[in-house]
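To the team - fe (ii) ion complex, inputs and output below.
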Amino acid sequence: MTDAPVYALDPSYYSDPKIFETEFKQLFTSTWQFAGHASQLVQTGDYFAFELFGEGFFCVKGEDGQIRTFYNVCQHRAHPLVNGCGSASKLTCPYHAWTYDLKGQLEFGPNLKSVEAIDCRKIRLTEVKTEVFLNFIFINMDLESNSMDQWFPGVRDEIEQFLSDWSSLAPVEWIEINENCNWKVSVENYSECYHCALNHPSFATGVIKPNTYDIRPQGYCLRHTTEARTGKSMSYPVNKSIPHANEYSSWYLWPMFSFQVYPGQVLNTYHWRPVDSEKVVVWRGWYTKDGEKNETIHQLAIQDRKTTVAEDIRLVESVHRGLKSRGYSPGPLVIDPKFGVNSEHSIATLHSWMREFFKGQGYSDQY
Ligand code: FES
Ligand SMILES: [Fe+2]
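Output:
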């Protein structure tokens, strides 16, 4: 007897506003989220503000060299503490000048001493969990969350070995891509290469060798590996003398971020930022030594935007429309027991994570 096929997720996962609200309030707030890069915080007191899922945060470098992240909200009457980026020895709220140290402890405020019952020592900015992972800053709003090494076992060591100069890399350019689709459609499309041969001629014939492509789950990471093209068929020059020069690898960290290393140790990243159930903004980051401008990387980023990215936008937006059709019910996934480029076992894994999360939220079987 053969096993029954595994079916794709129910379309309601992609369009039901209740699902999105639960993701927004529960999933995104209990998983590791990308905040920025450590190269943005060099000196003590350097900070930058950012927004995620409608919440304001800021990261700041303390006197002890540690990077901390706080909700960007004063504990007096809720004004944001900082705006944009900058450097400060103390954090002074622009509303009534309550002043906090770099660890978030309230130190003083105008006329506070006149109220004996106010104890400054008991007032602190609200902190979230922060990890600096290979110089990338990630936060988790769930203070009980496991560490990134527990979520994504082996990834730190693998990237360290793969990218010999990771510690000197810094962002050189960002490309923002708007996609009219649910974030999961975009992530799923990213997570399989069953569609590559037909839809990504530049990538499949100019960067990688599709017959060597493989994707394996590793904790809540999906690790992609493949060999690169060599010689004339490679679309940009690669320094062959460095380790892993002829390999491509990526580490997708569920749910919103992926590290990619293109042949020649070219680090680039994906960061998905869902806007609502129908829209996602994808940030593509490119990195060079000390963030120095590099014409090859610039051209590669342009080529990637014009080819793979543009091709994927068309696909994900079409799928998003298709998921709303009355004529669609979830189809079976192609799960090749031998894995490989034409298998969708990575989609089955992503779907199992989503099903597991929603089961934990008490959703019934209809999802
Ligand atoms: S709201 Fe920040 S000092 Fe009043
Ligand atoms: Fe694609």
